[in-house]
């Protein structure tokens, strides 16, 4: 398999990353998307986003204590509490970004802000599956994995700090050898502020 012309030798997740399938039910998924769609999505990027807890500044690439919006909405806070109960976070996540990806939209390779955000990053996938690509900053090694809807992707350790993650901006993915057209995907990324 090749990703952007680079041969991928080891398909899968980088060390320190795991996918927890079916972490929420289809009914919870529907309710969450409805909640997100009731509010105002921001058009500041090529994909739509909503920020909760603290606003992330895409130009400066930081979130600061001054960027505080307020407490997380109860629906989102409840998921954070469940992540703490499940031992995924040691303390309650307090910064969440919702991303909406329509077919053809993606997110470029990045490491989440290291001075701003803690050592665990969790991304919840809703609606459509998609491929996420990973790149080791030191060696250039590439990996890729499919994120199923209602799953959690947990990034910690090396996967959080030393590998980039990205979603290719395309309209379909190869899943189990079959080309699958993307639908609308919404994700919620949970983080803890370091401040
Ligand atoms: O959509 C995703 O699953 C990832 C989002 C992401 O990487 C981010 O918000 O930093
Ligand atoms: Fe990220």
Which secondary structure elements does this structure contain, and how are they paired or packed?
Layout: E1 2-3, E2 6-7, E3 17-20, H1 26-38, E4 48-52, H2 74-85, E5 95-101, E6 107-110, E7 120-127, E8 130-136, E9 142-147, E10 152-156, H3 157-161, E11 163-167, E12 172-175, E13 178-181, E14 185-191
Antiparallel strand pairs: 1-2, 3-10, 4-5, 5-14, 6-11, 7-10, 7-14, 8-9, 8-11, 12-13
The structure holds 2-oxoglutaric acid (AKG) and fe (ii) ion (FE2).
Residues 110, 112, 165 line the site of fe (ii) ion.
Written description of the protein model:
The chain is α+β, with helices and mostly antiparallel strands and about 200 residues long. The protein contains 3 helices and 14 strands. Strands 3-10-7-14-5-4 form a 6-stranded antiparallel β-sheet. A 4-stranded antiparallel β-sheet has the order 6-11-8-9. A hairpin with a 2-residue loop joins strand 1 (about 1-5) and strand 2 (about 5). It has one domain (about 10-190): Jelly Rolls (Sandwich), CATH 2.60.120.590. The chain has helices at about 25-40, 75-85, 155-160, and strands at about 1-5, 5, 15-20, 50, 95-100, 105-110, 120-125, 130-135, 140-145, 150-155, 165, 170-175, 180, 185-190. The protein is globular and about 45 Å long. It binds 2-oxoglutaric acid and fe (ii) ion (FE2). 2-oxoglutaric acid binds near residues 97 and 187. Fe (ii) ion (FE2) binds near residues 110 and 165. InterPro entries: AlkB-like, AlkB-like_sf, ALKBH4, Oxoglu/Fe-dep_dioxygenase_dom. It comes from Rhizobium wuzhouense. It holds the Pfam family 2OG-FeII_Oxy_2. Keywords: Dioxygenase, Oxidoreductase.
């Amino acid at each position: 398999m090749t990703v952007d012309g680079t041969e991928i030798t080891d398909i899968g997740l980088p060390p320190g990353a795991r996918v927890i399938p079916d972490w929420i039910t289809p009914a919870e998924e529907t309710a969450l998307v409805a909640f997100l769609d009731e509010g105002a999505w921001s058009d500041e990027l090529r994909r739509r986003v909503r920020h909760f807890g603290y606003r992330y500044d895409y130009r400066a690439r930081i979130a600061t204590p001054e960027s505080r919006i307020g407490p997380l909405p109860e629906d989102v806070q409840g998921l954070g509490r469940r992540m703490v109960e499940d031992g995924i976070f040691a303390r309650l996540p307090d910064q969440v970004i919702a991303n909406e990806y329509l077919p053809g939209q993606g997110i470029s390779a990045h490491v989440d802000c290291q001075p701003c955000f803690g050592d665990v990053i969790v991304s919840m996938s809703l609606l459509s599956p998609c491929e996420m690509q990973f790149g080791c900053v030191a060696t250039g090694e590439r990996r890729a994995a499919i994120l199923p809807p209602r799953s959690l992707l947990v990034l910690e350790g090396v996967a959080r700090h030393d590998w980039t993650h990205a979603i290719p901006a395309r309209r379909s993915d190869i899943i189990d050898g079959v080309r699958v057209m993307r639908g609308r995907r919404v994700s919620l990324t949970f983080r803890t502020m370091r401040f």
